[in-house]
Amino acid sequence: MDSLAVATLARAMAEAIDLYALSRCFLAELVAAHPLASACCYRRSLAEDRLVPVACTQISTDALPLLDLDELENPLVYASRSAKPCFVEDVTRLVDVGAGFDALRESWSAAPALLVVPLKSAGKSVSGVAALLGTAASLTSWRQSPLWQLLLAAYESLFSRLGDMADAEESIRYETSVRRTLERDRSKSLAKRLATEFIGNSEAARHIREEMLRLGESSLSVLITGETGSGKDHAAWLIHQASPREGPFVPVNCAAIPKDLIEAELFGSTRGAYTGATQARAGLVAEAHGGTLFLDEIGDMPMAMQGTLLRVLNEKKYRPVGATKERESNFRLICATHQPLPQRIREGLFREDLHFRIRQRWLHLPPLRERPEDISALATHVLLQYNRDHGLHIGGFSAAAASWLGQQSFPGNVRELRSLVLAAAERTRTGKTIAMETLQALTSDEDTGAHQGDDGLQQLMSLDSLPDAVETFERTMVSQRLRQLNGSRSRTAQSLGIPKRTLAYKCRKWKLDRDMDFP
């Protein structure tokens, strides 16, 4: 080769943008210069388990076979594993060296000798091999040429660099493919879970499940609205479950915490920060780090606390009661309310700027009366849970009972339906179906209680003390629910949405167990 040809080849190799272009120009010039019958190049796969074709002077690269690195007798595999050249003076004498080599030999033109040269990377590990076919004399002449050994060194260096780039790109493609597959599998899994956790066959139920999946992928604050008993707390938990956040789901009922204690409950306190603070407390905001903080009944949060919460949401920092230093918590906020917040804003009871901050995303749960086609599925789901929890077999609902349920408006929504089904199940013998008469008897008891409640309401209105009126109302409601559920405290507490220990305390305080007779 003259100096111009050498310079042209060196420039072509330097300008090559991938392994194919680099190997194609190098091998083509090599075959023409000596001359040789053919030449091809292979590189090690990213998984280091086989040799992958890169380029060939005689046929298309796609026609070349993959070579398994377990074919130890294969000359190309031998050169790759040993990092030494492999010279075969008579190719026809190679028998049973591997299916890959046999397939490769069929695609080559007839040539007596084979030389396989390992291509080493900068770290001296083998990144590929070059296989040259020709006469033994031409192959020996090429190996003894100082010029071609310099060109081979340049080719090896460029091959290593472009190979690393190709490996990086392949790795990114593989990781992207795996990530997309995992995301698809996760989405399918979450969709199935939501279908079993948020019950309903209506278009509204399907839309809510789809929206919860989308909300789970977001990090923005969510406001869930809907009537009492529509399942806002359950929807918040499902959104958390659909999110990638690995921290806990921390629910807080803003209406159930006394006004003077809500700040300490949320942000924690130091020892001695207030009367009764005998030890330091972390607070629910700290507990929700890495997870979701769910503020139920956000509309009942005191105005003073709303400003503090807004600052925490904006800065992700808070200060425990009595502390001098601020702390950080990375949480996702979900809020819920049954109250119309725009009206509360007009009344001066809720901050408009906080409303904008918590309503970055919005989910509305329609009342059960707007999706009556879901009543049957919900009732069946509650009954299945009851059977599973109690080891019983209540055989569903009679046709008349199912029809009757579908005609009810359920102003208490899913919570009311759940309480009714649980009460009816406790009054039904195992192996039997729930009868319409059982359901009607339970609701007629409520109607009787409602008529009695009208008189009771008048009595409540006549009381001068608001705390006395509230306590009287609570006692009436608890005693009536205990009667409906045959004295079952666990079911009563569940239906009222209060902890069992709270109910036990109220029963002891009002002596309900000894004063009431249950059927």
From TrEMBL:
Quote the SMART domains the UniProt record gives.
AAA (SM00382)
> Start and end of every Sigma-54 factor interaction domain?
198-426
Q: Which PROSITE patterns match?
A: SIGMA54_INTERACT_2 (PS00676), SIGMA54_INTERACT_4 (PS50045)
Which UniProt keywords are present, listed alphabetically? ATP-binding, DNA-binding, Nucleotide-binding, Transcription, Transcription regulation
> Could you tell me what this protein is called?
Sigma-54-dependent Fis family transcriptional regulator
